[in-house]
TrEMBL record:
Keywords, comma-separated and alphabetical: Cell membrane, Membrane, Transmembrane, Transmembrane helix, Transport
A Gene Ontology BP annotation from the UniProt entry: transmembrane transport
Protein name: Sugar ABC transporter permease
A cellular component annotation (GO) from this entry: plasma membrane
Family: Belongs to the binding-protein-dependent transport system permease family.
Domain ABC transmembrane type-1: 70-283
Organism: Thalassospira profundimaris
Length: 294
């Protein structure tokens, strides 16, 4: 009887969600399945459903451009997520200390997140231009040996992209961390002070474990944005110099549109899908399935 009651509860909400469910299944799942199927074919400009096994994947992983793009994505992802978490947490801690003009500082730190990656890429392209940006300004102030032009170097260009991405993405992490800190009972702070626990130990051993769900959510959100990073690279470097800042998403788009190699583009897209599933799957299970059972 209880099962029937649960089944018919919130019936109007369930009926209203049917169009979205159909869209999700029809657009997302079917399109993903179609894309995966194309990766096992020799399709060029048009689909050609002749099964050739894993030939496209073998060809993909023996292509220097793809392996370099994956390597760049690993560097970008580790540094981007790491710096966003650390800087975002520090900013949240500083704001949580009841500083003056808190609203102004929150707005300033969050403002870059309101900008698109295209605008962010163009801004930092100018700022890292040796003739126009930071290097030129500092040299005009008297420090003539100062160098800051990472985008002109094949070795350091990817780090220039990381700087722009961290500047743009730290504000969201700050807001998530601040919300987590504000949700902690003030009695815990009082107890820590009474026990004489140093402030840094309070944060490391008490506060951070308590906001673990917020940290996990922040990591998942940023990891997904890492996998699909495209517009920032195109706007800031175009993948250059050479292919020094090539990323998997740009590899997929270029092969799908400019080179007309649909099969290898879909193989690359499928490889991009795997880390997303590995990240989102455990998170969804932990947040919804396991909690629902508990």
């Amino acid at each position: 009887m209880k099962r029937k009651t649960r089944m018919w509860s919130n019936l109007s909400a369930k009926i209203a969600s049917i169009p979205m469910l159909i869209t999700a299944v029809g657009v997302f799942i079917l399109c993903v399945a179609y894309s995966i199927a194309l990766s096992f074919t020799p399709s060029r400009y048009f689909p050609k459903f002749d099964f050739i096994g894993f030939d496209q994947y073998i060809r993909l992983w023996t292509t220097d451009r793809w392996t370099i793009s994956v390597y760049n994505l690993l560097i970008f992802g580790v540094l981007f997520i790491g710096f966003c978490l650390v800087i975002g947490f520090i900013l949240a801690v500083l704001i949580d200390r009841n500083i003056r003009m808190e609203g102004v500082f929150r707005t300033i730190f969050l403002y870059p997140y309101a900008l698109s990656f295209v605008v962010t890429g163009l801004i930092w392209q100018w700022m890292m231009d040796p003739a126009l940006g930071i290097q030129n300004v500092v040299r005009n102030l008297g420090w003539e040996s100062f160098n800051f032009a990472p985008l002109t170097s094949t070795e350091y260009a990817i780090y220039g992209v990381v700087i722009a991405a961290v500047w743009q993405g730290t504000g969201l992490i700050m807001c998530l961390m601040l919300a987590g800190l504000r949700g902690i009972d003030r009695e815990i702070w009082k107890a820590a002070r009474v026990d004489g626990i140093p402030l840094w130990r309070t944060y490391v051993f008490i506060i951070i474990p308590m906001i673990r769900p917020v940290i996990v959510t922040a990591v998942v959100l940023k990891a997904i944005s890492v996998v699909r990073v495209y517009d920032l690279v195109v706007a800031q470097t175009g993948g250059g110099p050479g292919i020094a800042t090539e990323v998997p998403a740009k590899f997929v788009i270029d092969h799908f549109t400019e080179r007309g190699n649909v099969a290898i583009a879909m193989a690359a897209a499928t490889m991009m899908l795997l880390p997303v599933l590995l990240l989102v799957g455990p998170w969804v299970y932990n947040e919804y399935v396991r909690r629902a059972r508990a």
